[in-house]
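Subject: for your reference before the review

Hello V.,

The reviewers asked for a structural picture of the protein, and I figured it would be easier to keep everything in one thread rather than splitting it across files. Below is the amino acid sequence we used in the manuscript, unchanged from the supplementary table.
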Amino acid sequence: MPGGDIEAWPHVKDIFQGIAAKVNGEPCCDWVGDDGAGHFVKMVHNGIEYGDMQLICEAYDILKTTLGMDQEEIAKVFTEWNKSELDSFLIEITADILAYKENGEFLLPKIKDSAGQKGTGKWTAIESLDYGIPLTLIGESVFARCLSSLKDERIKASKILKGPAFTKYSGDKTKFIESVRLALYASKIISYAQGFMLLKEAATQFKWNLNYGACAMMWRGGCIIRSKFLGNIREAFEKNKQLENLLLDDFFTGEIHKCQDAWREVVANGCLLGVPMPCFSTALSFYDGYRSETVPANLIQAQRDYFGAHTYQLLSEPGKNVHSNWTGRGGNVSSTAYQV
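And here is what came back from the structure prediction:
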């Protein structure tokens, strides 16, 4: 994902593309844009990677915890999933990890459940906050790693804090496994949609002319998040270069609609059965928020105006800041110093 001065690109293009991974003979490497665009796109790639990894962990956890599936059985499920829309590097290696044994015993249960991080997911989340872009899934995946690091506290809490009385799913096992697959797929779409939202905002801020379809195709090979539906992302942006959000593309709209009932079922059961699903649930919450014509932020604006005279705008008078004297006491001066 090289960026920088476009005049330098011809001098290094053959070298970079020569050593890059290739898919169907096409190098997964191209000039991204000026002034740090390459680093930014790489950072977002890594942020999406954080989200993908956490989503896969949550899918594994709900299969293990609520269905009582053993590791070998779950490994076979992931192998099958890798033949579907979920075909990707991370699903492939997860199947390998689940099936791996040392001295005749599965290795995974012996690994401490405390995840490390190098910082790129955190950087992505920080940038999203700075630009006001709701990368909820990537942010939650970073927080999930932070929570995992509280191992000693979690051990103590597990002996004190109670969960639901029932922790096993009582419905059709085969159907629920398919529901988890669809929920994982839908949540993954949300992760990529949010990542491209941040890329679009950064491009606006820095005046980059990013080719979003080309970025997706650079991730097809040699990247941790390489996956089958990156081609669909390219097609979406090629079809509509002004596409505001991947969710508004006909293909991804259809895929989300196809997955929606299963997605809701899995998140609801995770909640009822006490299985933590931070990224599955935040992905669904984002989807419901994004598709809502109205959200309760009008109440937030009223609260801000009440306690800090921060003003609000009326639907009937867009662009005009209004302050109300909510208590009948005090003046009509808006605050410019105290921001919440």
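For the response letter, the relevant points are probably these. DSSP finds 13 helices and four strands in the chain. The CA atoms of residues 62 and 91 lie 16 Å apart.

Happy to draft the paragraph if you're swamped.

O.
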